[in-house]
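Checklist before submission:
- one chain only
- standard amino acids only
- sequence pasted in full

Submission:
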Amino acid sequence: MSQKKSDLSLEPKYYAMEIVKAVIIALVLSLLLVLGAAFIIKTFNLDTSAVTVINQIIRSVSILVACLLSLRRPGSGWLRGVITGLVYSFFAFIIFSLLAGGFEFDITLLNNTVIGMVAGLISGIISMLVRRN
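Returned file contents:
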C-alpha cells in the first residue's frame, strides 16, 4: 500500500499532467461524439433545435468521462474539474470554430464556458468519490 501512495505524488506538476490528459481525452471524445451525432441527425432528419441540447450533453459527458479516466490523485478534485472544464471549453471553441469556418464571440461562448466549468466541477467531485471507494 505504501508503494501506491508513493505513485500518487501530490506535486503540482502531476496535477497539471492529469488536467492536460483529461482535456485531450475530452476533446477527442467530443469530436467522435459530434461526428456520431451529426450522422444520427442527418440520417433521422431530427429538428435542428435539438442540436444545441445534444452539443451540451456531448460536452458534459466528454468532461465526465475524461475526469473519471484522468483525475487519479487525491484532493481538490472539484478545482481540477473546474480547470479541466475551462481549458476544455477554450480548446473546444477553437477547434469547432475552425471546423465551422469562423469564430463567433457571442453569448453561446459564455454559455458553453459556464456549462463546461459546472460539468467539470461535478465531474471532479464524482471522480474523487469514485476513487475513494
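Reviewer check: The chain has a mean pLDDT of 90.
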